[in-house]
Structure formats: C-alpha cells, structure tokens
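Hey L., structure's done. Input below.
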Amino acid sequence: MKTGQPFSRREFLKTTGGALSLFTVATHLSLALANATEGGPQRVKRNSAPIRRLLDEMEAKGYQFLSVPRKDGELLYFIAKATRSRNVLEVGTSHGFSAIWLGLALEETDGRLTTIEIDKERYDLARRNVKEAGLSRRITCIRGDAHVEVTKLEGPFDFIFLDADKEGQMDYFSKLFPKKLVPGGILAVHNAIRQAHSMKDYLDMIQKHPDFDTVILSATMDDGFCLSYRHRVS
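Output:
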C-alpha cells in the first residue's frame, strides 16, 4: 500500500538501518535460478499492449485502492519468475494490481495464484480486472477474512505475499508456517518501512527467526518489503 509523502533519502536510510542487503537477495535469487530445471516452462508470448493499457489504468487509480506502486509490482513479478514459483498466495487483493503482476509471472512458470480479499466491491473489481488481463485460469480470487480463509487452503506455497491488515502479521505467520510455506520459499510483507510500527512484533520475530534469512528491501526509496527466505536446511 502507498501511504503519505516520499521520505527524503537520508530519512529513508535512517529508517531502514542503512545500506540494504541486496547481496543477500541477489544470492538467493541466483541460487533459485541455478536450481531451476533445464526443461522448465517455455517463454510465454502474449499480446502485451492490452496488458500495459490495463496496468496503466489500474496504476492511475492505485492510491484510491491502496495498491502497491508499479515498481513493487514489477519486483513481485521478478521474484516470482526468478524463483520459478508455482504455487503463490496473496493476502489482500484490493483491485488486483499486484495479482496481475504475479499472474503474468506465473504464465512463464506455469503456476497458480490464490488471492484473498475481504471487501466485496474490491473483490468484484479484482475479478473483472483479472478476467480482462486474460489471467482467470491462473488466478483464483477468494472473498473472505484472510485470517479464516488461509486455514482452509491446502498449500503448501512457495511464495506468499502479505498486504492486508498490518497488525495481523503474527496471526498470518502462525497459520502459514511451517506447514504452508515450503523450505526454500519466500515470504514477502509489504509496507515494512512506512508501517513498521504496526508490525513491530512481526518484524522483530522474523528477523531473529532461526529458519529464515530476512532483509528489508525497497524498490521505490519510499516504502518497501520485508522479504524472508525459509532455509532449505534447518
């Protein structure tokens, strides 16, 4: 979600604790690429002009729907493709902007996204946007309280993106880990800089958790993600 005005560079670096551990992220993504099978999915050819037009229209309304900024959508797209994600969960669909970015990535990996939204108006709009993007076969939209709905999902997931109520991160984590996040999986939480105070208990916990490597990462120099990689070997 986007909130408030951009930080100054100095304030941003102070908030994030200095230089970000981009090397750690790049290392894990490189390992994921190296471990991908050579006989994986082929490059997907799409008519990109209608998709670009739809994303442009959705981006223009992004603040109204508290969706991720475009650069964050692009980062989610990149991570999902680079890690060859096949089973992805999103909590907090809004109007479907980030879901479409993830769905486009899953066209290449031949994966599927399950996304949960509590608000009926946004859920209906997201379904229409997903259909217009031609991604209905990739994306399953669920309407309901994600704290309840995630307990009904079988999983496991190799990429989980949390972008709903910030105070609920600990509850989501307890319901998703360990059974519903695979070893080697990625857990991404949005607004980890601007709304860090609202999820302080989660950020403190995940950055010390023995089963995860965690970095705070920004593509916008404004807000960003808490990215956590679950170790393959405990």
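DSSP finds ten helices and seven strands in the chain. Strands lie at 87-91, 112-117, 139-143, 157-162, 181-190, 212-217, 225-230.

-- N.
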